[in-house]
Amino acid sequence: GQSLEQPSEVTAVEGAIVQINCTYQTSGFYGLSWYQQHDGGAPTFLSYNALDGLEETGRFSSFLSRSDSYGYLLLQELQMKDSASYFCAVKTGRRALTFGSGTRLQVQP
Amino acid sequence: EAGVTQFPSHSVIEKGQTVTLRCDPISGHDNLYWYRRVMGKEIKFLLHFVKESKQDESGMPNNRFLAERTGGTYSTLKVQPAELEDSGVYFCASSPITDTQYFGPGTRLTVL
Prior knowledge:
The complex is a heterodimer of chains A (109) and B (112). With 109 residues, chain A is an all-beta fold. In chain A, 36% of the residues are buried. In chain A, the strands form 2 sheets. In chain A, strands 2, 4, 5, 9, 10 and 11 form a 6-stranded mixed β-sheet that branches. Chain A has a 5-stranded antiparallel β-sheet with strand order 1-3-8-7-6, with no helix packed on it. The mean pLDDT of chain A is 92. Chain A has strands at 3-5, 9-13, 18-25, 31-37, 44-49, 53-57, 60-65, 70-75, 84-91, 97-99, 103-108. Chain B has strands spanning 5-7, 10-13, 19-24, 31-37, 43-50, 53-56, 65-68, 75-79, 88-95, 102-103, 107-111. In chain B, the strands form 2 sheets. In chain B, strands 2, 4, 5, 6, 9, 10 and 11 form a 7-stranded mixed β-sheet that branches. In chain B, strands 1-3-8-7 form a 4-stranded antiparallel β-sheet, with no helix packed on it. In chain B, 37% of the residues are buried. The model of chain B has no long low-confidence stretch (mean pLDDT 92). Chain A binds chain B through residues 4, 30-31, 33, 35, 40-45, 48, 50, 87, 89, 91, 94-102, and chain B through 3-4, 31, 33, 35, 41-45, 48, 55-56, 58-59, 91, 93, 95, 99-106.
């Protein structure tokens, strides 16, 4: 079977740094993606890691360790607009994505 | 460049009725996916088209769901007859040959 585990909720203050972890157990692994979804909106692609290591895109970074079946999304200099749900998703065979249940991030002033 | 669009944005139907959801992918994207999120659970894969061919339909829950992509452009997902447990948000995504999938805003389906 396929399963991804991520925390259900995280709260942080503006300007802070927050890390959202994701562990996975899947049959077949090609890479780990992160998506952001605001309430009622479309999941928006943030990052994709196929190889071990850290990928940085502006205030957001994503990390992958294939040997540990683990990754994380790091959000720096948090802003109120970062309040949203964040999903990790594993790319298995045939290009389908298997999603985690999402982490709801609340950024407080 | 226009993103993935879906129609309708909301649909409320009664159990036993038929509903057809439409997805227009980003122009030039051969890969088109359907996903759904039921009652706040995780987003689950339904099926994947490459052009007009079904590449993987392993996520389709049962034969009440029928997806088509005639001509390899837009796709439709028909639910017939709809059941209460079909309520949720249905997302469409498309991708070119790379791995990044771009999602549409979703169709919120409510079956009463």
